[in-house]
Structures are given as C-alpha cells and as structure tokens.
Specification:
single chain, alpha+beta, globular, disordered N terminus
C-alpha cells in the first residue's frame, strides 16, 4: 500500500458513492423515459412508480419558491459533499460502518445535485402509499441518504465517542 493509502484509508470507499450516483442517475433516466409524468404505474400493493419533479428539498420543502432554491440546494449539497469527503479522509481503518454511512450520503447528495444542476429539479419516481396516505415520492439518491443517516444515528449509539469528538472508537 502506498503512503497515501495508509494516510487516508477510508477514501477507498468512494467507489460506493460513485455506485450510488450511477444507480441513481440510471434509474432516473429509465423512469423519465418509460413513465408519463404524474401517472402512477402500480407495481405492488402500496407501491407505484410515479414520475414527479421536485424543485424543493425533502418533502418538497421550498418547492413553491421562485427558483432561488435551486442554486441554494446545489451550493448546500456541494459544501456538504466537501465536508463529507474531508470527514471520510479523517476516519481510521476500523471505522468502516461510519465510512459507509458517509459515502451513502455523499452519493445521494451528488445524484440529486446532478438533477438540480441539469434539470432544475430532482426526478422522483418511487411512490409508496397506505390506503389514502401517500408518502412523498423519492428516488435512489434519497434512499441512500436515508440509509446513511440511519447508519450514522446507529453509530452514535454504538460509538458515543464519535459524537463528542473524545476517546477512541470501538470500530
């Protein structure tokens, strides 16, 4: 292993962020090509494929604004992405769980940033519902961000020293 590989061992997980971006953009391209806008296609009970465009953030937050939110969310996601890569570079070899959580969030953020920059909105198409309750549509990037965030929360309970900046990690 090179000196750089020993210095930043967890950067090797960036391949997973790239995989998330590839899967996210591929599925969004297929959804856009195969689905009619806002026309639900039943897949399973409680699960439709429904092509939607979200100009806001999670749960369409700020979607009704005049357009300033596009570049705000792009800027925010890019800053967060830099912070995540920096954080990833500081992790020790035994912090694999946290590294995976970080790169899942990173991959999801970059997948959605691509949409905002290219289209001005995020392509959503996974539509879950129960009776008359419909969960906001989402995509693979959103799923990766959610899984990564849940993994981080679990890590805080498994390794309280990560949240405080004190002590050594148990892994």
């Amino acid at each position: 292993m090179t000196g750089e590989g020993k210095r930043w061992p967890m950067l090797r997980w960036l391949w997973l962020a790239a995989l998330v971006v590839i899967l996210d953009l591929s599925t969004k391209t297929m959804a856009t090509a195969w689905l009619n806008y806002a026309d639900p296609v039943p897949v399973l009970p409680m699960f439709n494929l429904t092509l939607l465009h979200n100009t806001g953030a999670a749960f369409s937050f700020l979607a009704s604004e005049s357009g300033w939110q596009r570049w705000f969310f792009v800027s925010l996601a890019l800053v967060i992405s830099v912070v995540l890569v920096r954080w990833l570079s500081t992790l020790r070899q035994n912090e694999t769980w946290l590294a995976i959580a970080i790169v899942l969030i990173l991959g999801g953020a970059l997948g959605n940033v691509h949409d905002r920059m290219v289209h001005g909105y995020v392509v959503d198409f996974i539509h879950l519902y129960w009776g008359n309750y419909h969960f906001p549509a989402f995509n693979i990037a959103d799923s990766a961000i959610t899984v990564g965030a849940v993994m981080m929360i679990i890590d805080m309970f498994r390794n309280p020293s990560h949240g405080s900046g004190k002590g050594e990690s148990a892994g």
